[in-house]
Amino acid sequence: MPPAPSQAAAAIELEGLKRDYGGRPALDGVSLTLGAGETLVVLGPNGAGKSTLLRVLSTLLRPHGGSVRVLGHELPREAWAVRARIGYVGHEPLLYRDLSGRENLVLHARLHRVATERVAELLEAVGMSRRADEPVYTYSRGMVQRTAVARALLHDPELLLLDEPRANLDPTAAELIAPLLEGRARVITSHDPSDADGADGVLGLREGRPHALEGLYA
Amino acid sequence: MRSTVDALLRKELRLELRNREAIPAMLLFSVTTFVVFHFGLQRDSVDGALAAGVLWVTMLFAAMLGANRLFVAETEGGALDGLLLAPIDRTAIYVAKALAFGGFLVAVQLVAVPAFYLLLLGPGGGDAVLGLIAVLALADIGIAVAATLVAGLATQTRSRELLVSLLGLPLLLPVIIGAARATAPLFAAGGAESIPAKWLLVLGLYDLVFGLLAFAVFDFLLED
Amino acid sequence: MYGKGLRPLSLITCVALTGAFALAFFYAPMDADQGISQKIFYVHVPMAIVALGGFVAGGLYSIAHLRTGDRGYDLKSYVAIHLSQILAVGTLITGSIWARASWGHWWVWDEPTLVSFLIVFLLYCCYQPLRFSIEDPERQARYASVFAITAGAFVPLNFLAVRLAQSYTHPRVLGTTDGLPAKMALAFYIAVVAMALLYVTLWKYEMASKHARNRLRSIRRGLGEDIGLTRSASPQ
Questions:
Q1: What CATH number has the domain bearing residue A188?
Q2: Out of A53, B14, C145, C212, which could bridge C62 as a Cys pair, Cβ 3.0 to 4.6 Å?
Q3: In terms of CA atoms, which chain C residue is nearest residue B180?
Q4: Contact assignment for A21 to C136 by CB distance below 8 Å
Q5: Domain match, A69 and A136 both
Q6: Residue A83 near chain B (CB below 8 Å)
Q7: DSSP designation for A10
Q8: What pLDDT, on a 0 to 100 scale, did the predictor assign at position A138?
Q9: Which H or E run contains C191?
Q10: In this complex, which of B11, B83, B85 lies closest to A58 when CB atoms are compared?
C-alpha cells in the first residue's frame, strides 16, 4: 500500500549541487525543492546529467559542491539514514543475473529488513509471479525492468528515483506498474517532453546546468 | 551486521553453486598442476620442504585464479549498486566475500590435498593429518583475507586480472613462507615431525593484522 | 609553503652527506675481512632503512587521507612512496654490488634481508600502475590509499616472516650495532641521519613542485581554460 502523503519535511532540497566527472562538471549548480508526495520530471538531451542527478540523490554518488538534503537528511553525511527510505530504478537493473527474480528480491528484502512475504506480493503486482523462479538472464528486457521496479518498491520507499522507467516496458506492462509508483515523491527522468504533463515540477537540464524548456533539445 | 553477512553469504554460496565460477577452476588447476609436477620433477615421490613448496605454491596460484572471479557477479547488471543502496554496513560485503572465498578454498582442498597425497607424496605421508589441518586453516584465513581485499581493489580498475596477481602474490608471500615452513616437517621422509610453533604464530599474526586492516579499509573502496 | 626553509635544509643535508662520507672513508676503520668493499655498508643499509621508513610514512599519510578526506595527504603519500621506491632501487643495486664483492655472487637467495626487500620492492612497483589504471582522481586517491596502508602494514610482517626463515650469511647490522666498533657505529649513525635528511629534502622539493603544478592547473581552470584532466598516475 502506498504511504499516505505526510506533512513532513520536503522530499528534496538542492542548492547549487555540483558533481564533477573527469575534471569537468557533470552537474553545475542545480537547485530545486520537491515537496512530499510530489512528482518532478527531469528532461534533457543525452549527457545532460539526468542520470548523475539521480545517482547523487540516491546516495550512490557524493556531491562535490552545494548542499543536498533528501527526506530531511543531509548528504553525504547522513546517507545511511536515507537509504532505507528511497527506491532507485536506474539504467541497470541492480540484479544478479544468475539468481532468479525471487532470489534477488528475497536478498534485498533481507538487506532492507523487510518481511519476505512482501516478495510474493510485489512479484504478483508486477506480473512476474509465473517466471519468478527462473534466472534473471532468461528474462526479456521488459521482465527485467519489472523485476527491478519490484526490487525498488520492496521497502515501501517515500521517494522514488526513476531513470527513464518506461524505456523497456511495453504499454501493458507500463500500465501495470503505474499505480505502484503513485502516492510517493518521485523524480523521473525522461526524453519525452509529454511526460511532463501532470507533474508537479519540471526541470530542464543541459550540460549539467538548469535550462529553460524551450530550446532544450536544440 | 550478522544477519546482513548471513544474507550475503547465502547469496555467495548460491551463486557459486549456480554458475560454478571459482571452485571447479581452482580444483582443476590444482590437480593438473600436481600431475605436471609429478612428471616434471622426475621422482617417484617428494617429501619434506620440496613437497610443502609444491603444495603451497600450487594453492597460491589456484587462489589467484579464484580471486580473479571474486567480484565478477557484482559488476554485471549493477548488482553492486543494489548492495550499496541497502541500509547495511558495507563492511559486511567484505566479510561475506572473504568467508565465502575461504569456504571455496576449503572445498578445493578437500579434494586437492588427497590428490596431492596420491600423486606426489611418498608412502610415509599419511600420519600428520591434524597438524596439516591446522596449517591449512590458518593459511586459508590469511589467503581469503588478503585475496578478497586485493580482488576488491583490482576489480574496478582497468587491468583487473593482472593487478590481482601482481598485488596478491607479494602480499601473500608471508603466508606461503609460513605455511610451507610449517608443513615441511609434516612431510618429512622418515615420518611426520612436529611443526615449529613460530610458523603458526607468523600465520596467526598475519591473519590478525590483515584481517583487521581489511575490515577497516574495505569500505573506502566502495564509496563514490 | 613547501619551499619554506628549503635552502637551509638543503645546506644541512649537504653538510651531513659530506660528513657521513668523510667519516665512512677516513674515520671508520677498514673491515678486516671485506676490505674496502665493506664501505658500501654505509650507503646500502641507511638507504634501506630510510626507504622502508618512507613506505611506512606513506601508509600513515594514507590513513590520514582516508580519515579526513583531504587529498593533500594523498599527495604526500604518493611522493613518499615514490621516493622510497627510488631509494629501494638504490638499495638493491648497492646490496648486489656488496654481495658480489663479499661473497662472489650478484644475488644470494638465502639472504632474508635482500629477499624480503625485493618482495617489498616488487609490491610497490604495482603502486603507480594501480594509480594509472584509475581515471577518476578521487577514486584513484582512495584506492591508492587503501593500497598504501595495506602495503605499509605488510612491510614489517614480511620482514618478520623472511627473517625467521633465515640463514646466517648476511651480516645482521640492525640488531648488532653494539657489535660494531664505536667508530664504525658513529659513522653508521651519521650516515643514517644524512640519508634521512636527503630523503626529507627531496620529499620537500617534489612536494613543492607538484603543489605548484596543481595550483597552476586550478588557477587556469578557474580562469575558464578548459583543461579537464590528463590521465596520470600522480595526484591531481
A1: 3.40.50.300
A2: C145
A3: C165
A4: yes
A5: no
A6: yes
A7: -
A8: 95
A9: helix C182-222
A10: B85
Give domain status of residue A63, yes or no: yes
- Taking an 8 Å cut-off on Cβ atoms, the answer to whether A22 and C136 are in contact is yes
How many structural domains is chain C composed of? 1
- Band of pLDDT at residue B127, cut at 50, 70 and 90: low
With b for 16 or more beta-carbon neighbours within 10 A and e for fewer, the A10-49 pattern comes to: bbbbbeebbbbbebebbbbebebebbbbbbbbbbbeeebb
Classify residue A114: in a domain, yes or no.
Answer: yes
In DSSP terms, A201 is beta-bridged to A40
User: Does any CB of chain C come closer than 8 Å to the CB of residue B167?
Assistant: yes
Burial classification of residue B44, based on how many CB atoms lie within 10 Å of its CB (0-12 exposed, 13-18 middle, 19 or more buried): exposed
For residues A77 and A16, state if they share a domain. Answer: yes
Q: Are residues A69 and A59 in the same domain?
A: yes
Domain limits for position A208: 9-85+157-212
* B74/chain A closest Cα distance in angstroms: 7
pTM exceeding the 0.90 threshold for the entire prediction = no
- Inside any domain, residue C1: no
Task: State whether B170 and C66 contact (CB < 8 Å).
Answer: no
**Which of A156, A173, A201 represents a domain boundary (last residue)?**
A156
Residue-level pLDDT at C33: 65
Share of chain C above pLDDT 70, in %: 85
Residue C168 scores a pLDDT above 50? no
Asked if A22 and C227 come within 8 Å (Cβ–Cβ), the reply is no
Which residues are within 8 A (CB) of A72 and not within 5 positions of it... i.e. 6 or more apart? A8, A9, A10
Q: A37 with A145, same domain? A: no
A72 and A18 in a single domain? The answer is yes
The answer to whether the CB atoms of B173 and C145 lie below 8 A apart is no
- Residue in A with minimal Cα distance to B81: A94
Give the range of the structural domain holding residue B68, as residue numbers without chain letter. 2-221
User: Does residue C55 sit at the B interface (CB-CB below 8 Å)?
Assistant: no
Contact C135 A23 (CB under 8 A): no
Q: Where a domain ends, among A118, A138, A156?
A: A156
CB atoms A108 and B86 under 8 Å: yes
Instruction: Provide, as residue numbers in chain B, all residues whose Cβ is less than 8 Å from the Cβ of A60.
Output: 81, 84-85, 224
Domain that holds residue C70: 6-233
Pick from C119, C120, C150: CB nearest B213: C150
Contact C153 B178 (CB under 8 A): no
Rounded to 10°, the helix A141-153/A101-111 angle is 20
CB C73, CB C148: distance < 8 Å? no
Nearest alpha carbon to residue A41 among A149, A166, A152, A197: A197
Beta carbons of B224 and C164 less than 8 Å apart: no
Question: Do A104 and A139 lie in a common domain?
Answer: yes
**Residue A171: per-residue pLDDT:** 85
Would residue A94 be called left, alpha or beta, if left means φ above 0 and alpha means ψ between -120 and 50 degrees?
Answer: left
Q: Quick one: closest CA in A to C232, which residue?
A: A22
Chain B contact partners (≥3 CB pairs within 8 A): A, C
Q: Does B171 touch chain C (CB under 8 A)?
A: yes
Distance from CA of B184 to the nearest CA of C (A): 13
Mutate to test the interface with A, among B85, B89, B223 (most CBs of A within 10 A): B85
DSSP A96-158: -TTSBHHHHHHHHHHHTT--THHHHHHHHHTT-TTTTTSBGGGS-HHHHHHHHHHHHHTT--S
Could you tell me if residue A184 is inside a domain?
yes
On chain A, the residues whose CB falls within 8 A of the CB of C221 are 23
Using one digit for the tens of pLDDT, what is the confidence trace for B162-177?
A: 889 989 999 999 899 8
- B42: region left, alpha or beta (phi > 0 left; psi from -120 to 50 alpha): left
